[in-house]
């Protein structure tokens, strides 16, 4: 396994920015894949309080300290803001899901010395997401 992914997966808990109650959306599927793998996960969505039974908070600033890794499923412009907040909070493991990447967000991670994945690698593939599990 890619060392960046191994380091990311070493977190005690995970945040999913862009978590969605809609099972068709990738924000829901990424959150479910953490649950399917027995991981502790928090959604980040200002309109939800629970997604798939996992707690959901309005912003990265509201995540508990145990969340040390963040999966981001947002448009690139939003990803830049999410990465800035995550780095300010001390979150140093960031996975920009395919389509969420932004050159500015990647550069911010690089400057901060963060462990980041932004090369098209998808958590659904790496963690063997099962649609009907």
Describe the structure.
It is built from five helices and seven strands; from the N terminus they run H-E-H-E-E-E-E-H-E-H-E-H. The protein has a seven-stranded mixed β-sheet with strand order 3-4-2-1-5-6-7, sandwiched between helices. The mean pLDDT is 96. The radius of gyration is 13 Å and the shape is globular. It has one domain (3-126): Rossmann fold, CATH 3.40.50.720. It is α/β, with parallel strands linked by helices and 133 residues long.
Class by alpha and beta content = alpha/beta
Count of helices? Answer: 5
H and E string: HEHEEEEHEHEH
Total number of beta strands: 7
Largest sheet: 7 strands, mixed
Q: In which range does the helix fraction lie?
A: 25-40%
How do the strands line up in the largest sheet? 3-4-2-1-5-6-7
Choose one word for the global shape: globular
In the residues, how many domains can be counted?
Answer: 1
Low-confidence stretches: none
Q: Name the CATH superfamily classification.
A: NAD(P)-binding Rossmann-like Domain
